[in-house]
Each structure stands twice: as C-alpha cells, then as structure tokens.
Amino acid sequence: MADITVAPLPHIAIQVFSETGQVAAVVEEARHDRRMAKAQVRIQAGGVAAAVEAYRDAPTPNVIVIETVTDSNTLLDSLDELAGYCDEGTRVMVIGHVNDVPLYRELIRRGVSEYLVAPINVLGLVTALSEIFSTPGAKPIGRTIAVVGAKGGIGASTIAHNLAYTIATDLEVETVIVDLDLPFGTAGLDFNQDPPQGVMEAAFDPSRVDPNMIERLLSRVLPNLSLMAAPSNLERLYDFGPETFDPLADSLRQTVPAIVFDVPHLWTGWSRMLLTRADEIVVVASPDLANLRNAKNLIDTLTLARPQDPKPKLVLNQVGMPKKPEIAAMEFAKALDCLPLAAIGFDSALFGLANNNGQMIAELQPKSKARDAFLDMARALMGRQEAVRNKKSLMSSLRERLNGLSSKTKAA
Prior knowledge:
This protein is of the alpha/beta class. The protein starts with 12 loop residues before the first strand and ends with a helix. A hairpin with a 2-residue loop joins strand 8 (219-222) and strand 9. Strands 8-9-7-10-6-11-12-13 form an eight-stranded mixed sheet, with helices on both faces. Helix 2 packs parallel to helix 3 and helix 6 (156-169) crosses helix 16. Helices cover 41% and strands 17% of the residues. The longest helix is centred in the last third of the chain and has 18 residues, at 394-411. The protein folds into two domains: 13-132, Rossmann fold (3-Layer(aba) Sandwich), CATH 3.40.50; 143-411, Rossmann fold (3-Layer(aba) Sandwich), CATH 3.40.50.
C-alpha cells in the first residue's frame, strides 16, 4: 500500500482546549512536528465551556480544537452557544472519549470539521488538521525527496538525478528535479540542458514564488520530467535564510506529484530546514570511516528532529572500488542500525560515460545492476515496494546485493 503524504499546514492559528493530560501532551508534541512548522498553536485547560468563555469578547482563531468529557447533550448545547461567537471561516474540531456515531453525525450537521476519538496520537492529529485545509477534489499533495551526500564527491547528485529520471520514466509519475547546489550544480550537465532560468530566481525572490512562477522556471527534459537548474556560477554569494526554499517547496507540492531535491553537502540553516521538512530523506554514503561518521551524524540528527516521520534512508554508493580499503557493506549498515535502501557498485566506465554524454544510466545500460538499484529506490520512496521484481521482498533483495558486494570487495 502506498504511503499517505500529509500536507504541511498553512500559516494558521490553532487554539486547543484540553481536559486530559494525554491529549494536552499529544498536542504539545504535535506542535514540533515539521508539518506544523507554520502553525501557531496555543493550549489551554478546559473544554467547550472554557472555549465559550474565551471567545465571548475575543476574535476566534482559524481552528478551535475542543476536547470533551461531558455528555452529548451538554456538548451540543455548548457548541451551539460557541457558534454564536465564532468568526466566519473558523473551523472546529472535537476530540471525544466515546465512539458515538449519532453524535458524530450531529456534530458534522452542525458544521464541526472533524471528530476524533481519544486516545489520539501525534500523526493522527496532524493528519486530521491537515485534511481540514485540503481542498475537495484537489490533487494529492506532492511528495518531496531530499538527497544529500554524507561527504563531498561520492555521487549524491548522480543518485538524485537518476532517481528522478526513474520515477518519471519507469513509474510514469510527473517529477521535478531541483538542483540546490547553486554555485556548482551539475543537473544541467547531467541532463544535457542549459536553461536560461532556474532555481536562483526562486531563491533570491521567495516572496514572488507561486505556481505561475514555478512553471516559468522549469525546463522540460522529458514528458514526465522537468528540471529546475542551478546557475553554476560564482558571480554572487549564495547565503540564504533558513526558510528561503519553503515557498518553492510549497508551490511545487501543489502541482507536481514527485519532487527530488539535490541538496549539496553542507550544513546551514536552509539545508537543515529543507531536509527536516522533506517527506523522505536519502543519505548517500561511500563505505569508509569518514562517510560512516558523517552518515551517522546526519541520520541521528534528522531522526531526532522528525520523530513522526520515517528514518532517513541510506544508499551506499561506489561500493567495491579497486585498491581502496573500505568497510564491508553489512558492517557499515549494522553500525548505522539500518539496511541500505540500495547498494550501488563502483563502475567508473558506466557512470563516467553517462556523465560525459549527459545521459542517465537507464539510457546507457537499461539492464545494468545500477539501473535495477535505482528502480528499487524509486519504488520504495514512492510507496510501491510491493512491486519489486520476482516477488522478492526489498529487504531480501538488498541483503543479497550487500552480501555480493561485500564478497566482491574481499576478493579484490
């Protein structure tokens, strides 16, 4: 079954009236979820009666969340009174402790946006709040995948570009690859494109970013693949604030099902923010000690910052490089406590030719092991793991591949 992508909430104010410690604790934890970053959340003790008292002479926020432990008749009477004080456009969510279908129907009839039954969890609450602001009939929100290297020069950009190409061609999903390495990006070279505009315009004027601007900045590579290229020049400095790329990501989500961010190997406010708020993170590493240290730091830090999200995925690249001492693939994975999403063997001839020709691996060698690895990655990251060829599980396939690469390394 495909993963459900939960849309980030817009800039809204949310007031929560809680009556139990469990709900208050969940709301407090939800405040720090990446999808709630733009929402202003306040928590106040007391149920529907406290809400009525609070808004007798005060404007109401965008969303009022009310926990109730009272009986149905008292709740409905109080909600009717609250409705008289609510400003136009205010949404109300109720968290109850009884799974009562007639009550649910009566709440919906009165205009309540959602009724949740306690106990609740963080992801359930965030999802319910997100769905309140989803336009009926709108396209599903786009999925963002951020690819970053644990160390410079290990092929993270090549992984990102081939991943985007595979999602667009094999999965037939409309995809955008965004090159965020503004001074030294290679996406234009890898796709043999030289677009006059790209991500720089969005980065230096984020206030103007909207779907129309996005459409103008995209360069069409294939029917299902577009590129937002980096300028790749040193005429200006590329220093940005932490939320510089938020408008870009939000606008792309509105129009494109899959967005792959090629994130350069650096650690700044904006790169950390973009990685933290992505739906999926891919950390690319080569099996040596420096990569192990950096990959562990990245994965641990980002996992801690995203407690309700999947753990960042690991991709091992350049495995089995001749005459280079390296950590065995299975030992590397064990040290990070995660099985790699893919393990790609070193093949300088294939990858070098692809880079020089401005082609993807699937175009040069459609039956290569590297191409199979990109296909496995694309399926997993887009929630289609069940389709792995030959009915093998992804885990089984990867273990075989890792063992094979480790054996090859030892033999060399």
